[in-house]
Design goal:
Layout lengths: L3 H15 L21 E4 L1 H7 L3 H11 L8 E7 L2 E6 L1 H15 L13 E5 L11 H19 L3 E5 L8 H12 L6 H32 L10 H13 L3 H25 L16 H10 L4 E2 L5 E3 L7 E4 L7 H16 L3 E5 L5 H13 L7 E5 L4 E2 L16 H19 L5 H21 L7 E2 L2 H4 L7 H20 L16 H22 L3 H21 L8 H25 L8
Parallel strand pairs: 4-5, 4-9, 9-10, 11-12
Antiparallel strand pairs: 1-3, 2-3, 6-7, 7-8
The structure holds arginine.
Length: 593
């Protein structure tokens, strides 16, 4: 099945071709500017030049030659100067769009263009023994929306949470747990305690280091510490790498604790992964990866014994330290290889902080130099930072960092106030459920409504506004549609069943219908540009058009029962399409608010 606007474009092409005056390859259609009352235009300059006639003359001739038939979506054809303007037939468009939405339901806006092709999306990727901060929140939310969008395009999508669960810092984490004992808490509180243990250990370690340095300066014999904290941390790090059971057990306990805390947030955000292999999974594949990098000539052994690469004029980088240890990059190389072999994808998409841009350029360069991913697209989707409303970056050092669980809790508490004010009559359980959907939705939308590269601010006023560009406003518009449909059901008048959408000829109706028709265009655009904001903008524009329609066109009290039925069908179609758009963003659409 082709969507209405695709069909319209095809019909316009066919009509132009049928005149025999413009060859198919010269038909380059354009979208007229918003102030032009047309839906598609053919600028005739090129064809006119080829024919040796003035463009306005050709446009006029074409307009006279084209007679759109009654079974097309073309309403009028008109020459305006050198342009040949085509307008949609409002009634036929209404009939087509309303019935498409009814027929496709939850799949309205979806396509099959990715069918038979696989994409891996690497997202979220928090670090073990650390709370998920705003950076990981952005990755989680943008990544999940891209997963939804790519699935809607028919791709087979593998979502992989590349947990930061490996590296020398875990020696320190284990040593600190051995020294101070395991935290007794859960969720974010437990993670916070782990962070504190780590920091405390580091401070003690630094104090020992300073004492050693002082001894050197003052010419005293080196102090002997028992335990020597740095040696301890190194010992645990080695033990872990060698698979020592105790080290492994404590590490596993940290992994489980972190994942349990993360899972609560993932559940609230509707985030679901296919895999969470994590960096540790690749440990057994690292020696091979380093060997291969050396053999292929992508990397070389430096004078100091480390293995490094220098590719494509990028700064030199290490893949093996001179003590034999591996790094983040080494694991990423092994990860690419594993993903290519296991999933055979056409693309691997990394949704990671913009500050890792260089890391990914280096990674892509080295795997290509090793002969991998020849015809696989490797894409890094960078995103900007999160700031306070007045533009101050959030940072752990400044002490104003925001963590995911507390962020969601605060959002929901604030949303609760909005719900109390908008709809005090809801039951307690419903208020709680709506507040959760609105609060979480506000956080998600804040990450998605603009280009991911831009910084976002945590401005609650804007995020929970019932009138501006916010999830709350979109959810509210959807709930309003649902409420109209509920009332129609209760007042005994005609319902949307068997409606005749060709009665929808009011300009506000036509504009709303045209917006609904555009969701199937927005989805592929969002997918190609890795841009959930294209969907967000579609949702916002649609909600605004719905607002205008609602103001200008009485629904329940429409002039005739037929018109009431048609408007109800339009309201139902709007609800459905908005719900689909919100679903692509990962935002819930409650029926009451
Ligand atoms: N855990 C890393 C961090 O917090 C992000 C990992 C991103 N994914 C990857 N394949 N490198 O910085």
């Amino acid at each position: 099945m082709t969507y209405a606007l695709e069909r319209f474009t095809r019909e316009v092409r066919a009509a132009i071709t049928a005149t025999g005056r413009v060859p198919a390859e010269a038909i380059e259609l354009a979208t007229p500017k918003p102030n032009i009352p047309a839906d598609l235009a053919l600028p005739t300059f090129r064809a006119a030049k080829a024919l040796g006639v003035p463009a306005p003359q050709l446009a006029a001739e074409l307009a006279a030659a084209i007679r759109p038939g009654p079974d097309t979506l073309i309403g009028t054809v008109e020459a305006v100067g050198p342009f040949l303007n085509f307008s949609l037939h409002p009634q036929r468009l209404a009939a087509a769009v309303v019935s498409e939405i009814q027929a496709r339901g939850a799949a309205y806006g979806h396509h099959q263009i990715g069918a038979g092709r696989r994409v891996v999306v690497d997202y979220s990727a928090p670090n073990i023994a650390r709370r998920m901060h705003v950076g990981h929140i952005r990755s989680t939310i943008i990544g999940q929306s891209l997963v939804h969008i790519l699935r809607a395009l028919g791709y087979s999508v593998i979502g992989d949470n590349h947990l930061g669960d490996w590296g020398t810092q875990f020696g320190t984490v284990i040593a600190s747990i051995k020294r101070y004992g395991r935290p007794q808490a859960e969720g974010e509180a437990a993670m916070e305690q782990l962070e504190l243990l780590y920091a405390r250990y580091n401070n003690e370690m630094k104090a020992q280091e300073q004492e050693r340095e002082r001894a050197v300066v003052e010419g005293r014999p080196l102090p002997v510490f028992d335990p020597d904290l740095e040696a301890e941390a190194r010992r645990w790090s080695l033990a872990l790498e060698r698979g020592d059971p105790e080290a492994r057990a404590i590490w596993q306990w940290c992994v489980d604790l972190t994942l349990a805390a993360a899972q609560r947030n993932y559940d609230r955000l509707g985030v679901v992964f296919d895999h969470a292999y994590g960096e540790s999974f690749y440990e057994p594949m690292l020696a091979d990866a380093i060997d291969e990098a050396l053999r292929s000539g992508a990397a070389f052994r430096d004078a100091d014994g480390s293995v490094v690469a220098e590719l494509d004029n990028l700064p030199r980088f290490i893949i093996q330290r001179n003590d034999g240890g591996t790094v983040y990059m080494t694991r990423d190389i092994a990860t690419v290889k594993f993903r290519l072999q296991t999933f055979n994808p056409v693309k691997i998409i990394y949704v990671v902080d913009g500050r890792q841009e260089l890391h990914f350029r280096q990674l892509f360069a080295i795997v290509r130099a090793m002969g991998y991913a020849r015809d696989v697209e490797l894409v890094h989707i960078p995103f900007g930072i999160v700031t306070t409303p007045d533009g101050q970056p959030l940072s752990t050092r400044k002490g104003n960092m925001v963590y995911l669980e507390s962020l969601l809790d605060e959002a929901v508490a604030r949303a609760r106030a909005v719900v109390e004010q908008k709809n005090p009559d809801l039951s307690e359980a419903e208020k709680a459920a709506v507040a959760e959907a609105v609060g979480v939705g506000a956080v998600i939308y804040n990450d998605l409504y603009q280009d991911p590269r831009r910084n976002i601010s945590l401005d609650w006023e804007r995020m929970l506004s019932t009138e501006g560009n916010s999830a709350t406003y979109l959810q509210y518009s959807h709930a309003r549609c649902c409420s109209i449909l509920r009332r129609a059901n209760e007042d005994g008048g005609v319902g949307p069943e068997g409606a005749d959408p060709t009665l929808l000829t009011h300009p506000a109706e036509t504009r709303l219908i045209k917006h609904l028709a555009r969701l199937p265009e927005a989805t592929p655009e969002a997918g190609t540009r890795y841009a959930p904001f294209v969907i967000a903008e579609w949702c916002y524009a649609t909600a605004r058009e719905f607002g205008v329609f609602f103001e200008q066109c009485p629904v329940l009290k429409a002039e005739t029962p037929g018109l009431r039925a048609a408007r109800l069908a339009l309201v139902a179609a709007t609800a459905r399409a908005l719900r689909n758009g919100l679903a692509l963003l990962g935002i819930a659409a409650p029926e009451r608010m």
